[in-house]
Amino acid sequence: MTNIIDPIAEIDESRVGDQDVVIGKSRIIFRRFMRNRTAVAGLFIFLALFLFSIFGGFLTSWDKDTLDPLNIGMPPSPDHLLGTTQAGIDLMALIVDGTRTSILIGLIVGGVSVLISAVYGCTMAFFGGKVDATMLFILEALIMMPAILVVAVATSGSGGLKDLPSWLLLIVVLLFFSWMGTARLVRSLSMSLMQRDYVKAAKYMGVPSRRIVWRHLVPNIGSLLVLDFTRGITGAILAEVAFSFIGIGIKLPDVSLGVLIGQATGQVSSFPWMFWVPLTVMFLLTGSLAMMNDGLRDAFDPSSSSIGRAKTKTAKAGK
Amino acid sequence: MSTNTSQTPAERLRDAGLYAPGEAVLSVRDLNVRFNSENGVVHAVRGVDFDLMPGKTLGIVGESGSGKSVTSMAIMGLLPETADITGSVRYKGKELLGLSDKAMCKHRGSDIAMVFQDPLSSLTPVYTVGTQIIEALTVHNPSMSKQAKEARAVDLLRMVGIPSPKDRLKAFPHEFSGGMRQRVMIAIAIANDPRVLIADEPTTALDVTIQAQVLEVLHTAQEETGAAVVMITHDLGVVAGMADDIMVMYAGKPVETGTVEDIYYNPRMPYTLGLLGAVPRVDTATKQSLVPIEGTPPNLALPVTGCSFAARCPMVSDACLHGEPELFPVPGTEGQTLGHKAACIKSDQLSGNADAHRIFHAPPKPVSKFDGVARVERAKVLELRDVKKHFPLLKGALIKRRIGTVKAVDGLSFDIREGECVSIVGESGCGKTTTLLEIMEFHPDQVGEVVIGGVSNKVATDHKTTMAMRKEMQMVFQDPTGALDPRFTVYEVLAEPLENLGMPKAAIKKRIMELMKLVGLQSDHVNRFPNQFSGGQRQRIGIARALAVNPKLVVLDEPVSALDVSVQAGVINLLDKLRAELGLSYLMVAHDLSVVRHISDRVAVMYLGKIVETGDVDHVFDNPRHPYTRALLSAIPVPDPHLERTRERIILQGDLPSPLDAPKGCNFATRCPVFAALPPAKQEKCLTLEPPLAPEKEGTQDFACFFPDGEIDADMLVVHA
User: What is the set of domains in chain B, with CATH numbers?
Assistant: First the structure.
């Protein structure tokens, strides 16, 4: 755990008398990330998909609400680059829309749940005692709750939530269930940070506890939060796909990758492009995030091998 | 395994010439190790040569980062794949470098064995100690029968001094203390009668009394197996008594080699001279400052152009900056087989009795305004009255039962006067740190009274009183890295206590500049982060932070134990200077008795939560009365080979007993060397009555022992011939 808190300290232990040897921590992390080719590839794929979801509409003259009665259930053609559905809707337009929804859900759920867990976890660790016990109980109770039922009930519109678009509703529900694990991690990390000498030093100086948490605790769990953010995005996207696939997540007329995959499963043999295209996009999306996350973890972890080798090829050949 | 076929005939001839029967068992030639880092390729070891003769002990001495551990790892073939290793390592003439991991396994553990620094993590917790010793035997002796292996394991455990070895075979590592685990590690290392034993800082993680035990075991192990030992350490005292030859390493290169006598009595390299002067001595009352070696070792990611020590050397001249000096024989010693060599072009100027203090410009011993005032006339800055801290020991999963009490601090009373330094010493677990925490906690609910600057903890109910006390007393921590928030600049670190007092911004800035100057840091470094400083500089920042609010008392928790010897001296001198200039009082906790002797005025020796002896540092150290103090003092190795080889040592049996089964009478009776030699009638007194802490005659130290003049049990006395 301590590795995550202060990843570069050990590296910087090297001789640092003169200024030119000193490298900023963020620069080191960036360099280590860039050294991992897979991670960089992941970053590029993700950025490409992100741009595609925003500007992809310009690649086709159709939109997802317009039917093309001349091309119903047609495979990819110059007219419709990715083909059409059996209702005659351009698949490209649907994919652009679906990717956007999925990325939106991922970013919002990933980001906000990290915030919630940071605040919740720090509060638990800081107050301790009864507050900690109560909050921990609530947290455990939430972990036990069957998320799938709540999603089904909430998105079926029976809760008087009909006015909200289904993607927003799904975001709220996913948020509700996504922050507990990280919150527990943050709690234990903060607890161990509270034992650090610099926190003790501040205490013995008479610095108020609130200020200790804000100035010493929160900045020092930053790298954990960055890692958890990228992981949270993947989790949310996958959850959306899974829920929509079984028909309880995003509802038409909203489209998402999960909805598209779910709709196409029945006709894989007759309309294969309708199944394979959204599936590929989903894999690219989650795969690129996983590749990035791997690189980020290595960049933050001082014991990883992303430092490179000293052994040259000639030295190897000589043995 | 087979001879390297890619060698030229000339190389083969050279290699053949290197080895002849009866010569070095391990010979290292031109060993170079490079690692990659964020700052480029670091040349960690730059050309190490040595020959290890059978049965001899070679001490490799150096600071952290000098490449001594990397050298040993390279010999063992334990460095990561990513490291670039060149040169030659020969075991009995056979090249080890370049062997595959599998081939190397045949040598590791049977021909060359290693004892690591941290005994707590070098044994697998899920296997019994017996299994782990037997594993080492099985790997290299597959044909050995089970009974034979078990018998050998029992023998080994007995050899390293583990009581009732047969039963202990089935014990798990967590049932052993740190010192016992290190003994087991030594047992595993010598299991297959290795010809070479590499000990990498084998006692650094241990208490002094345990260190003495383990060094003794290493000594026995070497005598029993006849192995050659490579002893890697930063402590010049540890090797003084053990080693035959010494190699001093600096910046990845040996800078001086020779016999122990050469190195300790006739150092010819300024670095060695400085190192020897930088270590305080426990056996003499020195009234002069330590030798500080300013600066930091060079950055090995950059090519070294001149002498690597030039930047810190007081004797540096232009010639030193051109070309790195090779190790060459010291004038007058040529022709000897293992001559005294130094890598310094001015080594002839250091001949005879060179004075390190003069060469390194050691500052004069500072004098405090309080030094002339009698102790009783000075005001008390801290007073403890019968402070106790007892922890309940609970057992049971669901319903907790109290099965006993751990008396971490048991009725402590002492005071600190203005301008003096009081040290608390003792083994880990004796309650030193708990005492500090009790003082820092400063809460009305504590048992006993803590009075700081006239404010008692009994009346400290509101925030204002507590704040007033916090202003009087500040703390310096052991680990300078952990004590500074890595995300704060030095300015922010120093500003925190001042902001807390509500000081205006302009005044804070002025004060911080003052502080930086006071602790000897450049004032334009305030915008740097802690990780941009060396360990010694970080500790200076920690001291500056403690001094920010102008306290009267500074609590020092092992202030120099995490620092290198050469840096340590600078920090100790600084603490000395600040005490004199600012009229500070110190309360210090330290395990290094030499440092304590150097810096303190008074000392309190603690054992199991109680003070067993306290008084003026010179009284206690020159004429210890309590057997525990005597044992502690005799356990400290002195950096003087002659003295170290001839002096008597008290080796305490066993470890600190668990506070749970502390004896009823005198706490120390279970390990006491005097108690062991007493007739049963007198032993009874020790076991039933608790000795009071009282002076023998007026004006000397207080101690708690009935038989201060008792004979020491012969079994616990060791003298090396």
Answer: 267-364 (no CATH), 375-607 (3.40.50.300), 624-718 (no CATH)
